[in-house]
């Protein structure tokens, strides 16, 4: 089983290169002003230009307007949009239709009632990002380095592709894959030295651990 890895919140060419060389299949750029990983469209365009074919370039947005998405999509060559806010199923479908890009919708998990939303959004999105629900009052709805109870999704099946996220690290990703059966994993904080500061060694260790788990 091949496990696909997404490294999210990249801001420097050296870290994009480390992710690509390690074997990551997705790289993510965050367009959210409150995030320590926020990038401008100019920086994202420069980073995206260094990504080879076969590695998907993902723009992460939070409740973005059409105008904000227009500006991102016009400037950055993208392969996917990641919607990480409170977008409704109708809004997800609308973005997918308007921009003609595959859409990955994040669903935050804190309890069994949240797990039901995966199937709901799976009807309108191309992929689901199954992430930890941000704690009340958190400044950002993701990228908090928090894991959820993986047993909530153990032995579940959804027809759409999905990716596991939330508090993954080089040390716990193998156990997360074993428990959940995830075939795709996404990480941000777990490959950082401080919020927004990626580390090439941790990126390599994470990809190697995820692939070894397969
Ligand atoms: O990374 C961010 O700053 C961010 C901001 C707003 C929404 C989502 C964000 N990150 C996503 O959250 C998951 C989990 O992050 P972590 O590994 O627990 O730090 C991450 O995979 C990003 O896709």
Textual characterization of the structure:
This protein is an alpha/beta fold and 214 residues long. It has a single domain, classed as TIM Barrel. 34% of the residues lie in helices and 21% in strands. The chain has helices at 13-22, 41-48, 66-75, 89-99, 112-122, 173-180, 200-213, and strands spanning 4-7, 26-31, 56-61, 80-83, 103-109, 127-132, 162-164, 184-187, 192-194, 197-198. It has an 8-stranded parallel β-sheet. A two-stranded antiparallel ribbon has the order 9-10. Strand 1, helix 1 (13-22) and strand 2 form a beta-alpha-beta unit. The protein is globular and about 40 Å long. 41% of the residues are buried. The ligand O=C(O)c1ccccc1N[C@@H]1O[C@H](COP(=O)(O)O)[C@@H](O)[C@H]1O binds at residues 8-9, 28, 30, 32, 35, 37, 60, 62, 84, 131, 140-146, 165-168, 186-190. The site of ligand LGQLAAA5 has 27 residues, from strand 2 and strand 8.
Short description:
This protein is an alpha/beta fold and 214 residues long.
Topology:
Layout: E1 4-7, H1 13-22, E2 26-31, H2 41-48, E3 56-61, H3 66-75, E4 80-83, H4 89-99, E5 103-109, H5 112-122, E6 127-132, E7 162-164, H6 173-180, E8 184-187, E9 192-194, E10 197-198, H7 200-213
Parallel strand pairs: 1-2, 1-8, 2-3, 3-4, 4-5, 5-6, 6-7
Antiparallel strand pairs: 9-10
Helix pairs in contact: 1-7, 6-7
The structure holds the ligand O=C(O)c1ccccc1N[C@@H]1O[C@H](COP(=O)(O)O)[C@@H](O)[C@H]1O.
